[in-house]
Amino acid sequence: MLATASTVVVRRLPTRLRWTTRLASSTPPKFNSVTKEDIAHFSKILPPTSILTTLEPASASPSELEIFNNDWIGRFKGQSTTVLKPKTTEQVSQILKWCNERYIAVVPQGGNTGLVGGSVPLHDELVLSLANMNKVRSFDPVAGILVADAGCILQSLTDYVAPHNHIMPVDLGAKGSCQIGGNVSTNAGGLRLLRYGSLHGTVLGVEVVLPDGTILDQLTTLRKDNTGYDLKQLFIGAEGTLGVVTAVSILTPPAPQASNNVILALPSFNNVQPLFRQVKHHLSEILSAFEFIDRTAYDLAVKHGQGRALESDEVEGAECFVLVETSGGRREHDEEKLSDLLEDLLSAEQPLINTGVLAQNPAQFSSLWALREGVTEAVSKEGKAYKYDISIPLASFQEVVDGTRERLRQKGLLHDKAVKHVLGYGHVGDGNLHLNIVADAFLPEIQDALEPYIYEVVQSLRGSVSAEHGIGAMKTHALPYSKDKASIDLMYKIKKVFDPKGIMNPGKVLE
Ligand code: FAD
Ligand code: MLT
Ligand code: ZN
């Protein structure tokens, strides 16, 4: 039986732990602003087109730097005067070496689609954009191993390997803008982690430039390599705090011969768990995604034109929806398995679903996916989003969404008072809930109602405050809810080894 919202046990974070973490960061290093002299030096490394600066003589206007200074959700804003766009690893090395000597803080930036304020400056740090490092270095079609510059857009890599009958192991709604270096640096999860696993498994190697300019060549294409500590793992999910990832070697799975998807409408969230069990059992090796959106998320996706709305009788009485995708080797076999599953589900004495809508062609396949992938876009069009990306037991998904809504109601903040919606969606197969609160504006009273409440709930469930988006600037204070003191202390020590002056993305991940 599911616990109700009121039964969630909330423990306060021990005061000692909070104090210790603050103490560790109580002496923030002082950084220098970029000066005209620095620009003169960068001009010896980069062509004029690769230097955007508002410092006189300006090569860019303040509005041209806006996109580099503002994050995707419109919550974090920096005041950087300078963006550098190197083309080669050697140029990155020379830039970092100079910044390190001059105590200039650096924010590596990929597609700037990150959702935790990690990719934009907090003050006037220099932005190092990887956008011009966008070449595929090699692809081995037999082994399926791709080596690419960090600035390659995820979608362009998907397109690159497609004619070789391979796919990228990671897929996410931001694929048209995010870069592989950004994906690796955030350890992005995405829509098919259930099938292809995390980047900690599929990334075989990285090339990284350390703050002092050292080029760390970990760009192996070996599947097996047990030669001591696996250093590359430290950069997967480091969010630009240890160095700049300049290239990635990654294992691409063979493309499935056939993919199908279906949206299932459920009368109650309580049915999601038994449904997941049944779907896994029935589809076994061909299951490639099991994604969840609640009714509010569905309504917002439809309202903002993400995918085609289902018929009214298909959504009637539905509390939530699950998107199931299959990817396999033989179309008839997979279709038969999926239809059998639907038949079983609908003919059960107590059906877990009200109805299922099966895509009949590629356009419908994309449209059903858009209802799920488009929730992020829809939420951002609807208002200002407080985004919580948490790992918790699947059984608690709904109670956490409902509990949050109830708390905001009790605080008098719901609906006509600032908060418009509380919704849940995410990657059921990975135990990852995206809890979003959509408001008219970012307001301190909403923030105070949500935090530390949500983090305490996560801690009480032994969950994670960041399942896949990372810590960035948004959750540095929340790290102790998911990591113990010994782990955080070690993280500070590791940071010091790689970045003794602390110039790499200061204020992100660690306070
Ligand atoms: P950025 O946003 O530019 O940077 C993210 C972080 O990585 C920053 O800390 C930055 O400093 C660092 N960084 C970037 N490039 C480098 C580099 N080369 N070297 C060192 N550090 C670097 N995330 C998921 O996990 N799963 C999802 O399903 C998902 N869906 C999304 C859908 C939408 C519509 C959007 C807008 C975002 C989504 N995200 C998702 C969040 C985001 O993490 C990913 O979009 C992506 O991995 C970020 O890549 P990026 O190139 O945009 O990186
Ligand atoms: C998703 O799963 O859609 C992404 O992680 C983005 C989001 O949380 O909105
Ligand atoms: Zn996600």
From TrEMBL:
The keyword Oxidoreductase applies. The keyword Lipid metabolism does not apply. Residues 76-255 form the FAD-binding PCMH-type domain. PROSITE patterns: FAD_PCMH. One of its GO terms (molecular function) is D-lactate dehydrogenase (cytochrome) activity. GO terms for cellular component: mitochondrion. Pfam families: FAD-oxidase_C, FAD_binding_4. Keywords: FAD, Flavoprotein, Oxidoreductase. Its cofactor is FAD. It comes from the Eukaryota. It catalyses: (R)-lactate + 2 Fe(III)-[cytochrome c] = 2 Fe(II)-[cytochrome c] + pyruvate + 2 H(+). PANTHER family: D-2-HYDROXYGLUTARATE DEHYDROGENASE, MITOCHONDRIAL (PTHR43716). Belongs to the FAD-binding oxidoreductase/transferase type 4 family. This is FAD-binding domain-containing protein.
